[in-house]
Amino acid sequence: MTTRWSSSPGPMLLKRFSSTYTSKPLPSKSHLHKHIPDSAFPKGYALTGIHVGVKKNTALPDLALILSTSPIPASAAACFTRNAFKAAPVIVSQQVLAAGKGTARGIVVNSGCANAVTGAQGMEDAWAMVKATDALLLPSPVAAGDQGGERDTATSGETLVMSTGVIGQTLPISKILSGIKSQSRATLGSGFDAWERAARAFMTTDTFPKLRARTFTIRGQEYRLAGMDKGAGMIHPNMGPPSSSSSTGQLHATLLGCILTDAAISPRSLQSALTYAVDRSFNSISVDGDMSTNDTIIVLANGAAADGTAAEIDEETDKDAYEVFKEELTSFAADLAQLVVRDGEGATKFVTVSVQGATNYEDAHKIASRISTSALVKTALYGEDAKYVLFLRFLRPPLIPDIVSYRTRPHV
User: One GO CC annotation, please (predicted)?
Assistant: First the structure.
């Protein structure tokens, strides 16, 4: 490579360079999306994904609607970006959760426009999406947390909102609201086709819809978990519960997801389980380390598995049942998070960094994060050159050099 510089005015060629770089073929991802039996999905939810005009391509769905079909509010929990700057949908969803005291009955998601850096108009548009989706819900006789009173729909809502896409542009809100209003309970479904349409409506640069489901049992009662997420670029999340409003100085990313279950669990316990799960799943992945404003993971638990007859899971009154639920949620969240990594933009490798012998989880996480974001490590892995052990010189305490060892093995 040659470089020239001049202080004289006018155009000038600064650099000439040549490259012998040859891109490697991307691995096939077709096996990561598969049909799921209708019986595997949780009871009591209706979904769809439609095109309303946020995206130019009419063949691509850009609006997802997810409703709990029960008139009783579902327990709701969410983890949001800890970035001090938050997009309008993040702020509005936090307000909905606070007003509902950890309950909600709907989720509305648009892709193609992030509704970030949009000021007062962005907030107004996000609330308009909430209200329009609320109108599709069955009438709710009692607001959660109120002593027999009705929810004040003028100052709150029952729908959580997420947006992803281009930053700095306002939503085509009239198209979105028309699309929401065109739907009804009759146009939404509960089988695989409906879930897949909703998952596709999450997508931006994703190459496949990220959708998974599983069943688990607590005290003889079978429950179901199903979820979808999106993300391929700008991935290095650091999310926390709604109270985590300040930036930690770490990186953030664009990642949206929702998990639905027909288990009955108290709002406080659902939030506690989700925070634990996100720390060990979505907050433990990295693709490129870039920053965004919209990260959100939402969980709804409507209790429909036992038709409302099963006892509510609570971490204080039934710790054993809570621990089973927490571990199932964590494992499931990890499955969804790994789909994001496997769909990373330009990714040719799937690598797991395991840290053993650290004093605590936080220290181990810091070490693994530093390794996973190292350009040296990434280029060495891409070139399949084991010299990336050199990354150790960049690590700081709590690492103790005298007792460090490392090894690699093929991922299975």
Answer: mitochondrial matrix
Q: What is the pLDDT of residues 112-157, one digit of tens each?
A: 999 999 999 999 999 999 999 999 998 876 544 444 445 555 558 9
> Residue 285: which of 373, 363, 367 has the closest Cα?
373
Cα 406 to Cα 119, 403, 409: the distances in Å are: 48, 10, 10
Q: Which of 254, 275, 293, 296 is catalytic?
A: 254
**Spatial separation of the C-alpha atoms in residues 212 and 333, rounded to whole Å:** 10
Q: Chain centroid to CA 111: how far?
A: 13
In this predicted structure, what is the pLDDT of residue 388? 52
Give the residue-averaged pLDDT of 365-370.
84
Amino acid at site 110: N
With beta carbons less than 8 A apart as the criterion, state whether 42 and 61 touch. Answer: no
Instruction: Give pLDDT tens digits for 282-293.
Output: 999 887 766 567
Strand ranges (DSSP E) for 238-386? 239-240, 256-261, 296-301
* Token couple for 68: 């709990």
Q: Tens digit of pLDDT for each residue in 164-187?
A: 999 999 999 999 999 999 999 899
Tell me the fold of 39-139+153-343: L-amino peptidase D-ALA esterase/amidase (3.60.70)
Structure tokens belonging to residue 220: 């003889």
Q: Is residue 118 annotated as involved in ligand binding?
A: no
Q: Where are the domains of the chain?
A: 39-139+153-343, 349-411
Distance, in Å, from the CA atom of 194 to the CA atom of 228, rounded to the nearest integer, reads 12
Residue 250 has pLDDT above 70, yes or no: no
Active site residue 164: no
Integer Cα distance of 287 and 301 in angstroms: 30
Measured in whole angstroms, the distance separating CA 5 from the mean position of its chain's CA atoms is 46
Alpha helices (H) along 16-63 = none
- Spatial separation of the C-alpha atoms in residues 76 and 270, rounded to whole Å: 7
